[in-house]
Write a structure and sequence with these properties.
The protein has about 600 residues and is of the alpha/beta class. Helix 2 (about 20-35) packs antiparallel against helix 3 and helix 2 packs parallel to helix 6. Helix 22 links the parallel strand 15 and strand 16 (about 515-520). The protein starts with 9 loop residues before the first helix and ends with a helix. The strands form 4 sheets. A 7-stranded parallel β-sheet has the order 11-12-13-14-15-16-17. It contains 25 helices and 17 strands. The model is unreliable at about 1-15 (pLDDT under 50). The chain folds into 4 domains: about 10-170, Orthogonal Bundle (DNA polymerase, domain 1), CATH 1.10.150; about 175-260, Beta Polymerase, domain 2, CATH 3.30.460.10; about 270-340, DNA polymerase, thumb domain (Beta Polymerase, domain 3); about 350-590, Metal-dependent hydrolases (TIM Barrel, Alpha-Beta Barrel). It binds one DNA strand of 29 nucleotides through helix 3, helix 5, helix 8, helix 10 and strand 6.
Length: about 600
DNA sequence: GCCGTTTTCGGCCCGACTGTTTTCAGTCG
C-alpha cells in the first residue's frame, strides 16, 4: 500500500516531538518530490542517503543536534544540517513546504506503482494533468496513456497491471515465512537439470528483520531452460519480467520472486551482487574503481578490459584486498572500512549457543511441561535451560502466584534429577514490569530465583518520558538480570515503545543488566540498531527464543541473525556461556 | 547536496530488462 499519502501531519509531530524515523521519512519524501520535479539525480540521492543514515542512527537526533554533531552523520553537510535544525526547532521546514506547493503530494502515490518512476510520474502530471492514483488508473483504462511521448499500448497495460499488483501485494514477510518459502524454491531450483548451485540472496540472505521480495540466484551451464521452467512454475501468477539472466515473477499469494542465473564460473560475482545491499555494492564498486577495476554481477574487468571471473564471493572480496564480509554486515554501516582496517568482528555462529534463558511451560501459557521442554533443549544440544514463566499480574497468560512459583520449583527439581548432568535447569521468571516501573513480585521472591527477566506487556503506549522512566526503574532493581523484548514491538505492524534508548542503554550498562534479543520472528527485539550500540557499550546480550512450545526452541537462529547484524561476537552473547559462567556473572553483579 | 590516500570542484556504480525507439530512456535491484 502507498506510504506518504496526503499531508504530513507536521503539527502533530511538533507536539509529540520528532524522532529519527519521522525525520528520515521527511528526507525520503523530499527526495521523491525532488525526483518528480526533475531535480538532478545526485541531489535526490543525497537526500536518500541522509534518510538512510537517520534510520541507522542509534541515538536520538535531538541529542546529536544539541551536542553539535549533526555534521558527523554520514551524508549530512551544511545544507542538510540547516534543514534538520529547522525541523527540530520549529517542527516545520520552509523548503519542504515550498516543494509541496510546486509538486502535488498526491503524486507520491503514483511512485509506488511498479515500473512507474519519477520521470513517468512527471510525464503523467505535466502532459496529462494526472494528479492522483485513481486518475492514473482511469486514464489507463480509457487508453489515454498510450498517446503520451515514450508511452505505448504495452506501457499503458503495464501501468494498469502495476496498479492491480500493488493492490494484491502482500505486506512484508516475517523472516521465518520468507525462509520457508525461499527454501522450498531453492529445493525446486537445485532439482532442475543443469543447475549446479542455488542460493538465497538479497535481504533474505542478509537476514533483514522483515522481507519484501525473495531473491534467488543459480549457477547453470545453460540458463534458458531453467528460466523457462521458473516462469512456467505452477505457483506463478504473473511474469513481471523475463530475460536470459534475470526474471521476476509474482506468486499467487502476491509475493514477488526474482531469479538471477549465471554460468558457474561467474556464480561468486552474481551471488555477491544479488545479496546487496545496494549501498554496500555501490561502495564496493567505488572501491574497485579506485583500483582500476570495474565490478558487476558478471565479474571484475580491469583497465585493459580483461575479465576476472569469480566462482565464489571470497574471490571478489579478495581481489579488492578485503577479507570476506558476512552477508549480515553488508548494510553500508562501516563494514567496508572495518574490513580494510582488519577490524571486522568474529561473528557469533549458531553453533556457539548453549543456553536458553527464557522459556515458558504449562505452568503459565506454554504448551509443554517442564520435563518436555528440558528434553527438547537437551536434544538441541543445549547445556542450560531457564524456566521463566509469567508473573501473577499477567492474568491473561496464566501468570504464577508466589505460591505457584514455589510449587514450580519442586517440579523443576524433579526434572533436573531426570536430566542428570546433561542439562542444567534454572528456575526463573519473566516478571511483568507494571506501568509505573515496579515489578510484579516482591523483591524477596525475586531474590530466591536463578534468573529474573523483566518485561513490559501492557501500557505500551506511554509517552516517551514515562516509558523510559518505567524501564529504567525496572533496570535499577538489583534483582533484575535481564530485560525481555525491550521495546515490545510486534512485527510487521506494531511499533515498539517510544524510548530514550541512550538513557536505557546507559542504565543497563551501569546496573550490569543484560538485554534480550528475542528470537521470535514477530519480535526480534532488541532491534539491531540498538543491539549494535549495546555491543559497543559492552552490555551483554542474550538470544532467547521465549519458547512457548518445544518446537519454538528452534527459532534461536533468528535471534542469532539479529546479533550478527549487530556485529556481536560469541563472547558478547551470554547464551554462549556455560551455566557456571552465567551464575558467576549473576553473583558478581550482586556483590 | 556531499565529499576528498589521485579532487575544495568535478565527480558521484553497473548491468539486465522493457518498450519505445532506429540508438535510447526509464526502471529496478
Amino acid at each position: 500500500m502507498p506510504r506518504n499519502t496526503g499531508q504530513f501531519a507536521l503539527n502533530e509531530l511538533q507536539l509529540s516531538g520528532m524522532n529519527n524515523q519521522d525525520l528520515a521519512d521527511l528526507f525520503d519524501r523530499m527526495a521523491d518530490l525532488l525526483a518528480i520535479k526533475g531535480e538532478v539525480i545526485y541531489i535526490t540521492l543525497a537526500y536518500r542517503r541522509v534518510a538512510e543514515s537517520l534510520r541507522d542512527l542509534p541515538e536520538d537526533i535531538h541529542t546529536v543536534q544539541r551536542e553539535g554533531r549533526l555534521r558527523q552523520i554520514p551524508g549530512v553537510g551544511k545544507e542538510v544540517e540547516k534543514k534538520i535544525e529547522e525541523l527540530l526547532s520549529t517542527g516545520k521546514l520552509a523548503f519542504l513546504e515550498r516543494l509541496e506547493q510546486e509538486v502535488p503530494v498526491s503524486l507520491l502515490d503514483l511512485l509506488q506503482v511498479p515500473d512507474v518512476g519519477p520521470k513517468k510520474v512527471a510525464l503523467f502530471w505535466k502532459q496529462a494533468n494526472i494528479n492522483t492514483l485513481p486518475e492514473l488508473e482511469q486514464a489507463a483504462r480509457e487508453g489515454r496513456l498510450r498517446a503520451l511521448p515514450g508511452m505505448g499500448e504495452k506501457s499503458e497495460a503495464r501501468v494498469l497491471a502495476g496498479i492491480e499488483a500493488m493492490q494484491r501485494r502482500s505486506r512484508r514477510m516475517l523472516l521465518n515465512t520468507a525462509w520457508s518459502l525461499g527454501e522450498s524454491w531453492l529445493e525446486w531450483l537445485r532439482a532442475q537439470p543443469g543447475v549446479s548451485r542455488a542460493e538465497a540472496a538479497g535481504s533474505l540472505r542478509r537476514w533483514k528483520t522483515t522481507i519484501g521480495d525473495i531473491d534467488l540466484v543459480a549457477a547453470a551451464s545453460a540458463a534458458a531452460p531453467v528460466m523457462e521452467a521458473f516462469i512456467q512454475h505452477p505457483d506463478v501468477f504473473r511474469v513481471a519480467s523475463q530475460g536470459e539472466n534475470k526474471s521476476s515473477v509474482e506468486l499467487k499469494g502476491g509475493v514477488h520472486i526474482q531469479l538471477w542465473i549465471q554460468s558457474p564460473d561467474r556464480f561468486g560475482s552474481l551471488l555477491q551482487y544479488a545479496t546487496g545491499s545496494k549501498e554496500h555494492n555501490v561502495h564496493l564498486r567505488e572501491l574497485a574503481l579506485k583500483q582500476g577495476l570495474s565490478l558487476s554481477e558478471r565479474g571484475l574487468v580491469n583497465a585493459e578490459g580483461r575479465e576476472q571471473l569469480a566462482a565464489t564471493e571470497e574471490e571478489i572480496y579478495a581481489a579488492l584486498g578485503l577479507p570476506y564480509i558476512a552477508p549480515e554486515l553488508r548494510e553500508e554501516r562501516g563494514e567496508i572500512q572495518a574490513a580494510l582496517e582488519g577490524r571486522l568482528p568474529r561473528l557469533l555462529e549458531p553453533g556457539d549457543l548453549q543456553a536458553e534463558l527464557h522459556a515458558h511451560t504449562l505452568w503459565s501459557d506454554g504448551r509443554n511441561t517442564v520435563e518436555e521442554m528440558a528434553k527438547a533443549a537437551r536434544q538441541r544440544g543445549l547445556k542450560t535451560l531457564a524456566i521463566t514463566d509469567h508473573s501473577v499480574g499477567l492474568g491473561i497468560a496464566g501468570g504464577l502466584t508466589v505460591e505457584e512459583l514455589h510449587q514450580q520449583r519442586v517440579d523443576i527439581q524433579a526434572a533436573q534429577r531426570e536430566m542428570g548432568d546433561a542439562l542444567h535447569l534454572l528456575h526463573g521468571t519473566e516478571v511483568d514490569i507494571r506501568a509505573d516501573g515496579s515489578l510484579d513480585y516482591p523483591d524477596e521472591v525475586l531474590a530466591e530465583l536463578d534468573i529474573v527477566i523483566a518485561s513490559m506487556h501492557s501500557a505500551l503506549r506511554q509517552p516517551k518520558e514515562a516509558a523510559t522512566e518505567r524501564l529504567i526503574r525496572a533496570i535499577s532493581n538489583p534483582h533484575v538480570d535481564m530485560i525481555g523484548h525491550p521495546s515490545g514491538r510486534l512485527l510487521p505492524n506494531r511499533e515498539g515503545m517510544d524510548l530514550d534508548w541512550v538513557a536505557v542503554l546507559e542504565a543497563a550498562r551501569q546496573h550490569g543488566v543484560a538485554l534480550e534479543i528475542n528470537a521470535n520472528p514477530n519480535r526480534l527485539d532488541l532491534d539491531e540498531v540498538y543491539a549494535r550500540r549495546a555491543v559497543e557499550m559492552g552490555i551483554p546480550l542474550s538470544i532467547n527464543t521465549d519458547a512457548h512450545s518445544t518446537e519454538q526452541l528452534d527459532q534461536s537462529i533468528y535471534g542469532v541473525s539479529v546479533a550478527r547484524r549487530a556485529w556481536a561476537s560469541a563472547e558478547q552473547v551470554m547464551s554462549t556461556w556455560t551455566t557456571e559462567r552465567f551464575l558467576a556473572w549473576k553473583n558478581r553483579r550482586q556483590e
